[in-house]
Amino acid sequence: MTPTSCIFFLGLTTSALQFIAIATLAESYPATGKKKIGFMTSMYALGALLAPLFVEFYLSRGISWRMIFIMLTIGSVIAFAGVFACRNSKFEDATGAVDEVNEGNTGFIVTGVLLLCVVMCIYVGFENGFAYFVDTLFIKELNSPYGNYALSIFWAVMIPSRVLVGIFSKHARKILLAAVITIPVVTIMISMMNSGIPSMLLCIPLGFASGAIYPSVLTTLMRFSGNRKALATAMITTATGIGGALFTALTGILAGFYGRVLTGNIAIRATMVTLAAFFLLSLEAVIFVGKIGSLKEEK
Fold it and tell me: Choosing a second label site near 159 at 20 to 30 A (CA), which of 36, 217, 265, 271?
């Protein structure tokens, strides 16, 4: 088996693990799932923040990539063993104690799920695009060495953001609406900056708003998933994969295009504004999700 095929298989299984874990969590903890969704998604941000540091630490000490993959395999085996050992456990009795996550969940509504897929596709695409261009922005256009710090801040503030969304999950759609408005506004503000430190500080509200989207989408999704939570979360994670691949390529294409047609060193800034504009579609999707939810409650 070639390294390329191994990486393909790794991505395939990791994606499946993600949506299965989310669906299992929602079904196992129907009375307290709201907080656990926020906590689970905060671990994604924590991993994105810490993984490069751990990898750099081990590689600088002569430990090979193969050994790092073996270490990850050992951790996965331990996690799988824990899940297998608890397979027959009764996690939570939801009788008379259904939380806001599952309240009103009377059936699978494909329109609501698809609209949330649009939100996630654009969000993950923007997130990957931001990670793609932020260092170049700081080095080439702001003449600042703080690009890596800005990206670390962006990931770090996602952690408390996602935990807080779990705590206040009753207002998940309102939080989602605020997030899809805040992200493009702050992004445009960063694109207008001429100094590294203010741009780095603006990564705090940008990361906080970005972090709120994933748990807010998952919490809102539970209201439209009925008894098909695995299918609904699979659709969401598929949208994240499409967004990550599509927008990463689009970011490179836009940067190259603007670099050819615009004078001065503003190609990255123009790319940022263009990516931010996609959140207009996210805003419309969240508004329609609210309307669908209102119609559902009236019925």
Answer: 271
